Amino acid sequence: MIDLLEDRGIIGPGEGAKPREILVQMD
Fold first, then answer.
1. Residue 4: what pLDDT?
2. Distance between CA 15 and CA 21 in Å, rounded?
3. What is the pLDDT, as a whole number, of residue 5?
4. Residues 27, 4, 17, 21, CA torsion sign
5. What is the value of pTM for the model shown?
6. Could you give the 3-state DSSP secondary structure of residue 11?
7. By the 8 A CB rule, do 10 and 1 touch?
8. Which residue from 16, 17, 21, 18 is spatially nearest to 6, judged by alpha carbons?
9. Are 3 and 11 in contact (CB under 8 A)?
10. Is the predicted pLDDT of residue 9 greater than 60, yes or no?
């Protein structure tokens, strides 16, 4: 699921322990 979101450009890749950046608003 996460890989799918990355492929769609919805979230950026995870960086270590940092939370993933959400690139689009989800209501």
1. 66
2. 9
3. 63
4. negative
5. 0.22
6. strand
7. no
8. 21
9. no
10. yes
Cβ-count burial 1-27 (b if 16+ within 10 Å, e if not)? eeeeeeeeeebeeeeeeeeeeeeeeee
Q: Rounded to an integer, what distance in angstroms lies between the CA atom of residue 25 and that of residue 17? A: 22
With contact defined as beta carbons under 8 Å apart, do 13 and 5 qualify? no
Amino acid letter, residue 25: Q
Cβ-contact 21, 10 below 8 angstroms? no
Mean pLDDT of 1-20: 62
The DSSP letter of residue 16 is T
- Tokens matching residue 6: 């990355």
